[in-house]
Structures are given as structure tokens and as C-alpha cells.
Design the sequence.
């Protein structure tokens, strides 16, 4: 590896270090930058919206604001799971086209907030040229475990976020 490549990796890890809210989906642990998290709420009834992608559960009314809710398990191609007392919705704010968009993501349970330093973060492994891992910031090494650090701004494509905005606007006008 050249000196430039080593420096680029170091700069990337420094940009990724910080506080992460960790949560579980099935047996896997993930982390979200804490600055992207607006709040965590218990699972609540979601209003279905017709003709939405399978991973879109619908919308919720959170203190007068209509927020689209997605099931990360479905988005990531995992089996769906029964809702439990620990199932919750993490309300995040993503930035698209210089605009903040709120959405809820359903997770099995929230774990903790971790301070992850640059020496604990490894780059995302390269699996296959057809596999899109652009939404993964890196791999957080916490003890003997690995947490997948997500770039929540990239979990959904531009088109998917645009569709969520349309769903949100349509649901807001119906109320």
C-alpha cells in the first residue's frame, strides 16, 4: 500500500470516529452516528400506505408530524421477525439534496451508545463487485465483536428517499 493510500485510510477512519447508537437486527449488531438520531420510540401502530415498496411499513404520526417508517430487516433482505417489547423505531434525520428528511427505522432492539475511536474502525471489506456496500461506513471492532457502522444517508437510494417524501406528503395532506 502506498503512503497516500495509508493516509487516505487514516483520514477516512478519523472522519468515521465518534459516538454511535448501536442496535440489533437478528444476530447482527449495527451502529448509527448519534448525530443522525432524533429519538427512539417504542414500536407503535403504523398506517399502511398502498403501493409502497415491501420494506416501507407505512407512516406514523409523531406529535403531529407524519414520518415514513421502514423495516431495515426487509431492506437488508433478512427474514421478518415478530414484534417484541424490545422492538423499537429509531427516528433518524437523513440529508438529501441539502434537505433534511425524517424517517423511522424499525430495529429488534437498541443496545447502547458507544464512543468508537479511529483505531477501532476497519474499512468495509470488499466482497464482490456486484455487492453495494456504499451504505457501510466501516466495521467497528468492539472487544471480540464487530458492529457494522451504517451511513444512514446512503441506506436508501435517491429515488427511494424521493418516494418516501412523496408518501410522507401524501399522508400529511390526508390528515
Sequence:
Amino acid at each position: 500500500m502506498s503512503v497516500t493510500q495509508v493516509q487516505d485510510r487514516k483520514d477516512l477512519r478519523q472522519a468515521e470516529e465518534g459516538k454511535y447508537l448501536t442496535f440489533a437486527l437478528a444476530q447482527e449488531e449495527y451502529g448509527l452516528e448519534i448525530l443522525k438520531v432524533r429519538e427512539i420510540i417504542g414500536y407503535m401502530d403504523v398506517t399502511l400506505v398502498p403501493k409502497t415498496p415491501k420494506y416501507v411499513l407505512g407512516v406514523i404520526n409523531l406529535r403531529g408530524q407524519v414520518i415514513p417508517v421502514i423495516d431495515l430487516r426487509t431492506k437488508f433482505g433478512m427474514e421478518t421477525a415478530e414484534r417484541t417489547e424490545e422492538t423499537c423505531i429509531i427516528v433518524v434525520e437523513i440529508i438529501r439534496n441539502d434537505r433534511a428528511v425524517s424517517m423511522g427505522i424499525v430495529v429488534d432492539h437498541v443496545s447502547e451508545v458507544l464512543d468508537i475511536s479511529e483505531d477501532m474502525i476497519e474499512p468495509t471489506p470488499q466482497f464482490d463487485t456486484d455487492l453495494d456496500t456504499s451504505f457501510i461506513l466501516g466495521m467497528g471492532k468492539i472487544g471480540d465483536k464487530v458492529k457494522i457502522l451504517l451511513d444512514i444517508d446512503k441506506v436508501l437510494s435517491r429515488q427511494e428517499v424521493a418516494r418516501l417524501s412523496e408518501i410522507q406528503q401524501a399522508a400529511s395532506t390526508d390528515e
